Amino acid sequence: MIFPTISIGESFAHPTSMFLRNLMAMDTEEMMTAQPMDSVVLIGGCDKTLPAQVMAAASTNLPAVVLQTGPMVVGNHKGEVLGACTDCRRMWAQHRAGNVDLVEIETISSRLCPSVGTCSVMGTASTMACIVEALGLALPMSAAAPATLADRRRIAEASGKRATEIAIAGTPKPSDLITVASIRNAMIVLQAIGGSTNALIHLVAIAGRAGIPFDLAAFDQLGREIPVLLNLKPSGVHYMEHFHHAGGLPALMRELTAFLDLDAPNISGGTLGDAIAAAELVPHQDVICSFASPLKPEGAMAILYGNLAPLSAVIKHSAASPHLMRHVGRAVVFDSIEDLTNRIDDSDLDVTPEDILVLRNAGPKGAPGMPEAGYLPIPMKLARQGIKDMVRISDARMSGTAFGTIVLHIAPEAAVGGPLAIVQNGDQVLLDVEARRLELLIDDTELQRRLAVLKQSPQQRETAQRGYAKLFEGCVLQADQGCDFDFLLREGSPTPPKKDE
Q1: At how many degrees (to 10) do helices 180-192 and 197-209 cross?
Q2: Which is nearest to 123 in space by CA: 403, 410, 483, 359?
Q3: For 314-338, how does the pLDDT look when each residue is reduced to its tens digit (9 = 90+)?
Q4: CA distances in angstroms from 412 to 30, 416, 463, 479, listed in the order given
Q5: Last residue of some domain: 277, 312, 327?
Q6: Residues 324, 374 within the same domain
Q7: Are residues 341 and 440 in the same domain?
Q8: What pLDDT digit, counting tens, does each position of 385-428 carry?
Q9: Residue 373: which domain range?
């Protein structure tokens, strides 16, 4: 029996697609429990649909097979391979800088998405496809097969067959698959594939629905031990279809066997070790690197702390500029996305390449819905000087297809009184990725004075008075707890405090 749930469009969902993820999870959960089902096939593709469906499966604990819809194939322009959406961001930056004219950017835009499917790079959709396969919720080799290939149809048929088998057997259930061991396996894969920062929020939320504490410090430590092995944009050069032809996720996990729990069960009826043992050996491919010769020496992401991020912040340093990994700069502050839009390209904006762009009030409650606004554009006057990267920090999210030295998910967010709210234009800010620090360089007395003033005169903002928006405002958690609703966490699942708390 086919049953629908809401599907979230990434581009035009109002106010953001992330705002609606929890609604889709609730919708899916209610549809799963309202009907006499023995198992389900959860079909999703883009950034929020897969995590929403897995969150629902964890809550219902009904036997389920996840069927990812697969990435699109690549396009071409003047002999150059193009893929959404990393290349569209790169080309749009070139257009803003005056190097690509309007006619050519329109032509490029028409060639970026040449087929059905999700983004062809390691964006959030591709990352989540890999995460659900690593968790054992989807069949081996299901993450990377392009939407247009016969392989995808075969995976769909096999998923349906397996759904029938688990309906009869009544097992495995999501609780058998989403475990402490499989969450750690997913953490390792997330670091090794150069995955999206968004996937970290979703993985925390999935763990929360399963009642599994998510340790951000442990995730960060894995990032120091697990290098990036996948040569895909935005961290590398290739695309998802190349990953599939190189052996897919099982072939990549073969390089990680010393770290993974190989006994973790899979929806196929076997184990993670079985899937890896069956992985294809593809000679002369340069998409999956060996552990001994990785693409990047450390994993995709680092977790930062400091007086600007007491609960945490994240940076995808695998797609950042090495020369900015330790940087002190003057803050150029934008109070909202609207403020950013109005001033970022103003020729009178007081900004230099050494400054740090700061966006606030773009978090879960402040926006609301934590939009992908963290990819602050380089101010036009700097872009036209050839500047391609600057340090940018915010309480927002960023597309997994984006790149640059960008600190995200600052928690607590400015809208709930987080220290980001007290940063002033001209303040000195320190980013030190190796030390995992994000600091506002003012003395503690001044820091406490500003926080006290903020507490006495909190920001006034409009809040919803009815409907889902009111529910969201009252119940959404911060980024470090997955932005789920507090009443949907399973008992015992909140994120542990960081080590020095």
Answers
A1: 180
A2: 403
A3: 999 999 999 999 999 999 999 999 9
A4: 31, 7, 18, 8
A5: 277
A6: yes
A7: yes
A8: 999 999 999 999 999 888 999 999 999 999 999 999 999 999 99
A9: 302-460
